[in-house]
Every structure is written in C-alpha cells, then in structure tokens.
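hey so u asked for the seq, here:
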Amino acid sequence: MAKALSHHELSKLIGSIYDCALDPERWEHALAGIRDALDAQTAVLQLDDLANDRLLIYRTVGIEPYWLEQQAKYIPEIHARLLEDLSKWPSLDMPHVVSRHIPQTYLETSRYFQECLKPQGLVDVMSFFLIHTPTRLAGFAVARHKRQGIITEREIKLGRLLLPHVRRSVIISNMLDIGTVERAGMAEALDALTCAVVLTNERGAVLHANRSAKHMLRSGGPIQDVRGILQAKIPSASKELHSAIMLAAQDEASIGKTGLAVLLSESGLPPVFARVLPMAGGDLRAGMEPAAVAAVFIGNAPDEHDAAGMLARAFGLTLAETRVLASLVAGHTLAETAASLHIANATAKTHLDNIFQKTGVSRQADLMRLIMQIVPPTGQPGP
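ran it, structure tokens below
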C-alpha cells in the first residue's frame, strides 16, 4: 500500500502542476508525480477531438512506445464508452473508475481491455474529466498494474484533491495560447496575450497589468484599481478573488476550487470570469519577474451554444431546458429569456428549476460557475 503524502510532498506536486500552465512541456514531469502519488503504473493527460476521433494533446508517462501506437486503434471505443457514462454522470468532480463503473461483462468483450490493457498487466483505470464540449473532451487518467491492485478510496480521495489544480492549469494554459514563458520575460509575454492578466502581491496590490487588463481598468470594465488594489465591481467577486490570492500566498495546495471561476459581470451582462493562478511556488513561477503571488486571468464565458450543449449532454437536459440555459449563458435575464423564446415566465422558471435539479446547483451564479469550471473560455472580454 502506498504511503500517505506529506504536506511538503503534496505542495511540491501541486507546484509542478501549476508550472505546466506556463510551460506545457513540463507535463511529463508533473504526470510522473501524479502517477507516483496515486501508486499507479501509467498517467495520461489528453485533449480529444470528438468530432474526428483523434487526439490533439497526448502527454504520457509509463507507457511503452509500442502500446502508445496500439492505443490509437481503440480511440473510437474509448470515446464511445466515456461519453455514454458521462451522459449520466452525477458530478464532473467524480472520477470514473473501471473497477467500479464498468460491468465485468463489458470488459470481457472489449477489444481495448482485452487487446491493449490486459497484455500490459493493467487491471484498473481512474479517469477525471477536465473539459467537456460537444467537440472536445479533456481529462487525465492513471492506470494500475496487477501488482498494485485496483483503485482504492485513498487514490480516489487524493485524485479529487488534485483535480481542481490540474483543471486550473489546463484551462489557463488554453487561455494563454503561448509556448514556454521565459523566466525574465513574464511581463512581456503577458502583454502579448489577448486575455486580460493582472499580477498581484499577497494584499492584492497590482504589480503588473498587461495591455488588455489596463484597457479594462481604464474603460470601467468588471475589474478596477482602487488605490493600487485589484477589486471587482461585484463585492462577492472581490471577496473570492482576495481569498484566492491569500491562499496562493500562504499555501497554494489549499486553494482548491477557490478562484477557479469567479463571476465578475453583473446580472444581465454577458458573463466574464476570473481565474487565479498561484505564482509563489514551483520551479518556474517563483523565479519570474516581476515577483507575484498570484496571476489573475480574465476571459469571456464560452460560446453559449457550446456550453449549453455540453451541459445538456452531461446532465441529460431536454431541448427546451438547453435553450433556456443557452440564453442565460449569453447574459440574458430569465424574463428576457422567456420573452425571446416566446414562453411564459412561469414556464422558463420551471425549466430553470429542472436544470438546477439535474446539475445539483441551486442558483444561477453556481450554474455559471459549473460551466466555467469545465468548459474553456473564449476570446477577450469586451470593455
């Protein structure tokens, strides 16, 4: 049985995960740490093109080149099974574990398990969903060898603890859309980005704002500089931003979901979200100039139809519920949604209540947060 991770070991592992947000070439190192922490044989991080059954990103550790080539044959089967299970999944924070969620009768007839996993001695796989849209599926997974046995509650608990950190790193990396960020050139690299980014110290003081963020601060956008301190116009957003910044300064391992998707826009406006990336730890981030404890990345919500389609598939929404959701994601109020869809306000409210029940949330803000935690943002927020 694997030993428990010390706080120092956990912090070091999470630091390596966050370094990958700025330098994706570090994923193999971080995956090796995740694999060892979960007492597994292999670890994989991938971004799948569901429309064409191909892999866009595929980082692995512990898999021999021969089996990497062989696995490509089974991508359609893997996609089909994961999407079938995902359509009825209770929570995207829950891992998919083969030994718990795949019937033995299926394993006995599956070409993937019989021809690819079994010959490698692999007996169990635990997968986590990071991003899911109608055309994209991103996740990370570990597989265990027969000498390690099947996945236990220890690995599930630790995997769920790592999940928000991996998700934050992957989504921020998608927002950056750049290669390696040089240590001495952080400010210059950020200035070249289309999304707004603000670097802060532990008090939330603005150390650097890239060009997009400066424009947002000057034009009365969702963030503001109040006597040198980064603030959001919405008090609850400011509170969460500063909580995340304080956690980033004190112990990035404890940040969890805090600051992962902070709603900055007011009701009735297109949603704009912030994500807080800890900057004080890790080998890469701690050496950058200007020194900062947090980088706040600001981006639009995803396309409303992509987002609504993703939730519809993940939680079994009806067509009417999906239309209501798409309108809400676009920034419309429930009354405006009812009017645009030519339905009664009470009908729109019933659809929204059904969406709440199916997704397990109770407020529109939490519904938007759920979307932003699992769907990558697009573009640059308007002024």
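Confidence is low (pLDDT under 50) at residues 178-184, 378-383. The chain has 16 helices and twelve strands.
lmk if thats what u needed
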